[in-house]
Amino acid sequence: MRWADLDLLGHVNNVVYVDYLQEARVDMLRVHARDRRADDLADGVVVVRHEVEYVRPLEFRFAPVRIETWVTQIRAASFTVAYEVVDETPEGRVVHLRATTVLTPYVFGTARPRRLTPEERATLEPFLGEAPTLRGAPDGSRPEPPPPSAEHFPVRVRWSDVDAYGHVNNVKYFEYLQEARIPLLATFGRELPGAGVSERSVVARTDVQYRQPILFNTDPYDCLSWVSRVGDRSLELSSEIRDGDAVLAQARVVLVWFDPAAGRSAALPEPVRQAALTRLSRAC
């Protein structure tokens, strides 16, 4: 890990984890696969969905962290990769993160997905294992459309955000969502002394559904964000990235209030909770 990977709490930023997972997935398919035909599965795929559960903060150290990566499902035109970011300590195995990624092979020349070949399925089968259990998994229902009160944030794509195929890399979506989330959260805790909501909350879970590729454009895209649930220690934000009326991505992020002195979650301060409830009532 790099020193630049850390956030204001001294933890590896939630966005950076997804970059780690991408590196681990490509390494699994390009280095550890028994057949070189797996190269197409490393490079010639698009991410359909990420589900990421942040279990325990990861702090900077010079020793590497281990990422275990395997396949949990192979379907006709997609496969699912699972991950755990772990440490082996004298006290036992410590899990920092669990996640899954659904990927589909893609023909970039025609901009269309394709089916897995028998050879590719045979390449993936040695990696098969059980799916991890992620807490707070979505119920499978379609996300609610954004309410009129949703906050708008202009997403400006940088040239460096685009991959070799001309699409914004899947990791960058997490960064866009974070950038849109911070101005919204900044309005929650203006009555709080000291650090604001962004500095005192941690991301517990992020789910992103990729609908259409984001391309480089000098005009900004629109990211809409709104409060979709409020708990005693957490709140949930939903988001959509749009190009006009076209929905490019949908996401939900669960934030937990964090007590840095105790190193664990804490109850939402009442001003923050009331601010979130006010925005939730406007969204309903």
Strand content: 25-35%
Please tally the β strands and state the result. 11
* CATH homologous superfamily (4th level) name of the largest domain: Hotdog Thioesterase
The CATH class name of the largest domain reads: Alpha Beta
| Low-pLDDT windows of residues | none
Summed up, the helix count is: 6
What number of domains? Answer: 2
The CATH topology of the largest domain is given as Thiol Ester Dehydrase, Chain A
Secondary structure: helix percent: 10-25%
Largest sheet: 11 strands, antiparallel
Rg from alpha-carbon coordinates = 19 Å
Reported CATH architecture of the largest domain: Roll
Order of helices and strands: HHEEEEEHEHHEEEEEH
User: In one word, what is the shape?
Assistant: globular
State the secondary-structure class: alpha+beta
Mean pLDDT: 90
Write a structural description:
- This protein is α+β, with helices and mostly antiparallel strands.
- It folds into two domains: 1-136, Hotdog Thioesterase (Thiol Ester Dehydrase, Chain A); 143-284, Roll (Thiol Ester Dehydrase, Chain A).
- It has six helices and eleven strands.
- Strands 1, 2, 3, 4, 5, 6, 7, 8, 9, 10 and 11 form an eleven-stranded antiparallel beta sheet that branches.
- β10 (246-259) and β11 (264-265) form a beta hairpin.
- The longest helix is centred in the N-terminal third of the chain and has 19 residues, at 14-32.
- The radius of gyration is 19 Å and the shape is globular.
- The mean pLDDT is 90.
